[in-house]
Specification:
Chain B: Pfam families: FeoB_associated (PF12669). Chain B: Keywords: Membrane, Transmembrane, Transmembrane helix. The complex is a heterodimer of chains A (664) and B (54). With 664 residues, chain A is of the alpha/beta class. Chain A is 63% helix and 6% strand. In chain A, β2 and β3 form a beta hairpin. The termini of chain B are far apart. The chains are: A alpha/beta (664), B mainly alpha (54).
């Protein structure tokens, strides 16, 4: 089995390449930090295994996830390294390539996104690059599969066929060279370390690589440890960087060729002038989200959802009822299946169109390259709060699911900032809350559905940012993470990537319908059909009613006058979608239309909005609470997020209803 | 449909629902990967290594 490690800067298209080459499909996004852990796949019909490593700018890690790559190189020796670079950003990309080439493992460099480079009117002479760098150089365009057949042929070969590479030797200043040589010689002689590896490890150690320094301490590599103070005092690190940079500049100047046609004006920079404009940037960002909700709720999602509901609550429900009566099912079983499962689980499944349209929109934004601009635009606001644009990425991912959002916070290097981002993530409106928004906006705000949902999403962001500011002051977080975002060229989104991305995000919802939503619906059916006296026919005597009525006085100040939504809220902790299915069961309705009419009768616009705000911000679901606990390493933070969510949501919902009542 | 079959179907539904709730609570206690619905490569590798410890 031949092992190929895929390595490169963030957002150079490694994962797209990985997906094209192997039999696996991994999540891709046209922005930084999508690959957090390494992934393994096999090239189809071959014995070549490909390992996709997270994107890094250098082997000297800054963040937690970046150390994955250096640790991998320290502990494993791949047969071949495929260094994926962004052809338009070669100067910066080669800084990493040089470090890898110094290792002496066979390397193939591919200039990916070669089309973008051509559009800018430049090209590189591949032979010149190859002879200067001492390894084969290829060009690819992973998105439209250009150059992949050739690359695949390079990778699918037996271990014995791979030509060995001698390590790249740069002309470091004399003192540095001497230090490297001395250390490498002693490591080879005294510790029996392979000469190439010893040379590389010496350079990395001198270059202040934290992971390598830790490695040297663990293995007690005395030739390095004893000289540490000397290396640092002489500032060898700066000299190494300067030598590398001037080597790269020199190589690129020699290899650059001008293309004849420079007619193609970079459309990207034209678009960027508008969308990242200091004043216009933010309204455009809001506008794009508004458009997304218009598509999801008003134009495509809701009409489709209506048809689906008609089908489930009409023919399916009637047929199931008739069938169960015919086969002699007990009334209790019939009620469980028809009024419980079909009405409840089906009641959530009818929101598939809205959710999938929204996910498709988010995937299009990711794949087109706009998300990086959004991070840049929000960076200015985040800066005022003390966070930076980097925190925006986990927050946006949190729109899909808070759990993945919190996991994405790992890319933030400062522990305090990471904790703050984790704590505010549950305030982002995840997709599981969409069904309940949908029901209420259809009932009480039929003409302004998109606007109301947009306001809830932004209220979530505002609360998250305000809380971030508060935490920032309390934690006295002074250190700041560095936010570097690469603005990739815009792409026309590719249909298969959009479909894959949408399906990837949406399949979790369908899976949940068969598992936790199903379970939640059965639970609420039980609670609403049983009471202290056993099986009840009057729902008012059920446990659900008792529980709701006990809590009703607490919810009265925020405008709730019936017990049903309160009982539904309790089941929402299992998964937020369950609130919708519970409402369906508790209001004893079999179709969406009837429930909407029922909600319309029980709520005013003001109390409905207050309830939606409460739903947006109250207790996170089980999965999120668990993730907070494991990512912060403490049950206290998980408990805190539950309590703070309740306090904030109640206060806001209370204020909205009370102040609103005074004004109206 | 006999009474027994009725009871059996009811037990099946309740049993499955109970198991799902139990699983959700257990998964959320494990946190991170387990609680997340994405079945990514890293997670598959993790699950595999749990099944066949080296």
């Amino acid at each position: 089995m031949t092992t190929v490690a895929l390595l490169g800067n963030p957002n150079t298209g490694k994962t797209t390449l990985f997906n094209e080459l192997t039999d696996k499909y991994a999540y891709v996004g046209n922005w930084t930090g999508v690959t957090v852990e390494k992934k393994v796949g096999q090239i189809r019909h071959s014995h070549t295994e490909v390992i996709d490593l997270p994107g890094v700018y250098s082997l000297n890690p800054i963040t937690k996830d970046e150390s994955v790559v250096t640790n991998y190189l320290l502990g494993n020796s791949p047969d071949l390294i495929l260094n994926v670079t962004n052809a338009s950003q070669l100067k910066r990309n080669l800084l990493l390539s040089v470090e890898v080439l110094e290792l002496g493992v066979p390397v193939i460099i591919t200039l990916n996104m070669i089309d973008d480079l051509k559009r800018s009117g430049h090209y590189y002479n591949l032979d010149t690059l190859s002879s200067k760098l001492g390894c084969p150089v290829r060009t690819t365009n992973a998105r439209n599969k250009e150059g992949l057949t050739e690359l695949r042929a390079d990778l699918v070969c037996e271990q014995s066929e791979i030509k060995p590479n001698s390590p790249l030797k740069l002309n470091y200043p004399m003192m540095v060279n001497q230090a490297i040589r001395q250390a490498a010689d002693s490591l080879t002689k005294d510790y029996k370390i392979d000469a190439k590896f010893a040379h590389w490890i010496a350079i990395q150690y001198i270059n202040h690589n934290k992971v390598v320094r830790k490695y040297a301490t663990i293995h007690q590599l005395k030739p390095l440890l004893s000289q540490k103070a000397y290396y640092d005092a002489q500032k060898f690190e700066d000299q190494i960087f300067e030598t590398r940079l001037s080597f790269i500049e020199n190589t690129l100047t020699t290899a650059t060729e001008q293309l004849q046609s420079t007619k193609h004006v970079a459309l990207t920079s034209k678009i960027d002038k508008v969308v990242t404009h200091p004043i216009l940037g933010l309204p455009i960002f809001v506008g794009i989200f508004y458009l997304m909700f218009k598509l999801s709720f008003d134009w495509i999602g809701t009409p489709l959802s209506g048809y689906l509901d008609g089908f489930l609550s009409g023919p399916v429900s009637t047929w199931a009822n008739q069938f169960l009566t015919q086969v002699g099912a007990l009334p209790m079983l019939r009620s469980l299946i028809v009024n419980g499962l079909i009405a409840g689980v089906g009641g959530v499944l009818v929101f598939i169109p809205q959710i999938f349209v929204l996910f498709a929109c988010i995937t299009i934004l990711e794949d087109s390259g706009y998300m990086s601009r959004a991070a840049l635009v929000t960076d200015r606001i985040m800066e005022m709060i003390g966070l930076n644009g980097k925190a925006f990425i986990p927050l946006i991912i949190g729109f899909g699911c808070n759990v993945t959002g919190i996991m994405a916070a790992r890319t933030i290097e400062q522990p305090k900032e990471r904790l703050i981002t984790t704590l505010i993530s549950p305030f982002m409106s995840c997709s599981a809350r969409l069904p309940i928004y949908s029901l209420f906006v259809a009932a009480l705000f039929p003409r302004h559905q998109a606007l109301i949902v947009l306001s809830l999403y932004f209220l979530g962001i505002v609360v998250a940012l305000l809380m971030a500011k508060v935490y920032h002051i309390i934690f006295q977080a002074e250190e700041h993470s560095v936010f570097i975002v690469e603005l990739p060229q815009y792409h026309i989104p590719r249909l298969d990537i959009v479909w894959h991305g949408t399906w990837d995000k949406g399949k979790g919802f369908i899976k949940k319908a068969g598992t936790i939503i199903f379970a939640g619906t059965v639970l609420i059916w039980l609670l609403s059909n049983f009471g202290v006296s056993g099986y009840v026919t009057q729902i008012d005597q059920s446990f659900a009613a008792n529980l709701g009525q006990i809590l009703l006085p607490i919810f009265k100040p925020m405008g709730i006058s019936t017990w049903q939504p309160i009982s539904a809220l309790l089941t929402g902790v299992l998964a937020k979608e369950v609130i919708s299915s519970s409402m369906m069961v508790l209001f004893h309705t079999s179709n969406q239309g009837a429930l909407i009419a029922m909600i319309g009768g029980s709520f005013t616009t003001l109390s409905a909005y207050a309830l939606l705000v409460f739903i947006l911000l109250y207790i996170p679901c089980f999965a999120t609470i668990g993730t907070i606990k494991s990512e912060t390493g403490s049950a206290k933070w998980a408990a805190y997020s539950v309590v703070s969510g309740l306090v904030i949501s109640y206060t806001l919902a209370f204020l909205i209803f009370q102040i609103g009542s005074l004004l109206m | 449909m006999g009474l027994l079959i009725n009871i059996f179907v009811l037990a099946l539904i309740f049993g499955f629902a109970g198991y799902q709730i139990y699983r959700a609570v257990k998964r959320s206690k494990q946190g991170k990967c387990a609680a997340c619905d994405y079945d990514c490569e890293a997670k598959k590798m993790l699950n595999q290594s749990k099944k066949h410890p080296v």
